[in-house]
Amino acid sequence: MVKQIGILSRNKDYFPTTRLLKDINQRNDISGVFLSTQYVFPLISSSGADARFANQSLLPLLGIVPRIGRSQTDLGILCLKHFELMNIPSTLSAEALFLSRDKFRCYQALSKIKGVQLPRTILINNSFQADQLLKAFKFPVVIKLPDATRGSGSMLAPNPKTAEEIIESLFMRSSEPIMIQEYLRSGPLHTSPPSADIRVIYIGKEIIGSMKRIAPTGEWRTNFALGANCEAYQLLAEDEELVHQIAERIGIEVAGIDLFPTQNGFYILEVNACPGWKAFEMANPKINVAQKIIDYLLRKIRR
To answer: What is the CATH number of the domain that holds 137?
Structure first.
């Protein structure tokens, strides 16, 4: 019987999901199955843990590759914890998703790395003292949601008045906490404008490559989804060591790690537990990310 690897995702047509399924199904001894996250039903009893999908047990799965979107973070953490109870190998742990998805929580964990550079950030739960808290920052400042992705939920405030208006507006729509963060200045990698940062793809204790993301004219965010240009980039040995420390501290096995170059070295911006890689492969056409993820999962299964 052919063993199956599950791709846990909301959208079967999402680029990483299709690429992962294609790579698995090109292999002779395994097949890939799409598992829609919202239709995976965890089951627990005195007999142990199981999960159902399409009225079938998922216990026979060889392993899973989670692709958990922002809107399904809580459900994703619960499902990953359940797969751990079922002893099904995964490329992402529940703890790593928990730590990485919330940027402030991630910064808390990374702050324990000796010599680490993190942007000055404060987490606020209401707007009542925003005017006083903003005095601790030079302008402009970045205002973002802790779980913002692909540039969505991140805003640049050029002055205190605009910052207070953004904060007030966000709290009128939601009670979720907000991050106020210093706006990092450009370093030796580029001039400003435009803005640029580095995305590193990390798989199974290996840096498989990096790219520089350059924001389009008039945009400060460097997300590919917002029109950034991308090109291959080679990290120095000391910067690679930083990436390994980041991944080990979060306990993450597959990640996109974002670094921002300044005159004083790299600052850590984000650890993305479910990174896209379309732009990365455009910048590094000889690297097949899906293949490397599945190769890593199979090595983990065989250990």
So the answer is: 3.30.1490.20
Residue 246 CB coordination number (10 Å): 23
End-to-end CA distance of the chain: 21
Are 139 and 231 in a shared domain? no
DSSP secondary structure letter of residue 90:
B
Q: Are residues 167 and 253 in the same domain?
A: no
pTM of the model: 0.93
- Tens of pLDDT, residues 123-168: 999 998 899 999 999 999 999 999 877 666 789 999 999 999 999 9
Please tell me the predicted confidence (pLDDT) of residue 194: 54
Pairing of strands 121-124, 178-182: antiparallel
> Are 200 and 283 contained in the same domain?
yes
Tokens of 295: 């190769």
Distance separating alpha carbons of residues 56 and 43, to the nearest angstrom = 12
CA geometry: angle 122, 113, 252, nearest 5 deg: 90
Specify whether the CB–CB gap between 255 and 275 falls below 8 A. Answer: yes
Total domains in the fold of the chain: 3
Compute φ and ψ for 299, nearest 5 degrees. -65, -40
Angstrom distance (rounded) from CA 97 to CA 100 = 5
